[in-house]
Design goal:
There is one protein chain. The chain is an alpha+beta fold. It has 3 domains: 90 residues, Conserved hypothetical protein from pyrococcus furiosus pfu- 392566-001, ParB domain (Alpha-Beta Complex), CATH 3.90.1530.10; 38 residues; 61 residues, no CATH class. Helices cover 46% and strands 8% of the residues. It is elongated.
Length: 201
């Protein structure tokens, strides 16, 4: 496989491309290109027609790139069409492990890298995922089925100006001593309950 740097004006999109790229999708690709550059080449025919990577090519033009990395395939006709469809379809069939994704997003948020992912996720989607996994997910203790309903998981979304204060309050509540008599094994949950009890007393 030989990767070549080619002029964006010397290649052309497949006029029969069945894959559609809306503005949000192109903006996400463009955001990725700006942040990380082109990490994989597009695929073009010997004649310079794009077989796979139409969205990358269009986004590159959108942000003013003059050249793009590409590999030339010897596939032609129906074989090239079939490959182009398969390349898009196999990506569609993949899914997300929400728990793992949430943890990655939470970690990336700490070093501001999440800003570069925002083009791929709406603000509401990011807020939902970060809120869902922003608590330490310790499973409920092994109790009889009828007793499991005694436990509930709650998630909160905090503004940056609130985070350090909340963390400090939880740490202070934990340092006050063991949570004797609590059936809850989640230390953050116990700490929040202690804070609420002090507030209501």
């Amino acid at each position: 496989m030989k990767v070549e740097s080619v002029s964006v004006d010397e290649i052309s999109p497949d006029p029969a491309n069945a894959r559609m790229h809306d503005r949000r999708n192109l903006d996400a690709i463009a955001g990725s290109l700006r942040r990380w550059g082109q990490q994989k080449p597009i695929v073009i025919s010997e004649a310079g027609v794009i077989v796979a990577g139409n969205g990358t090519w269009e986004a590159a033009k959108q942000i003013g790139w003059k050249r793009i990395n590409a590999v030339k395939t010897k596939l032609e006709g129906s074989e090239a069409v079939a490959y182009g469809i398969a390349d898009n379809r196999t990506a569609e069939l993949a899914g997300w492990d929400d728990a793992v994704l949430g943890k990655h997003l939470e970690a990336l948020q700490a070093d501001d890298s999440i800003d570069h992912l925002a083009a791929g996720f709406s603000e509401e989607e990011l807020e939902a995922m970060l809120g869902k996994f922003a608590v330490d997910g310790i499973a409920p203790p092994e109790l009889a089925d009828g007793d499991r309903e005694l436990f509930q998981q709650m998630a909160f979304v905090l503004h940056d100006s609130q985070v350090e204060k909340v963390k400090a309050a939880i740490a202070k509540a934990k340092a006050a001593g063991p949570f004797n008599g609590s059936l809850n094994e989640n230390s953050n949950g116990n700490a929040l309950a202690r804070i609420v009890e002090d507030y209501l007393s």
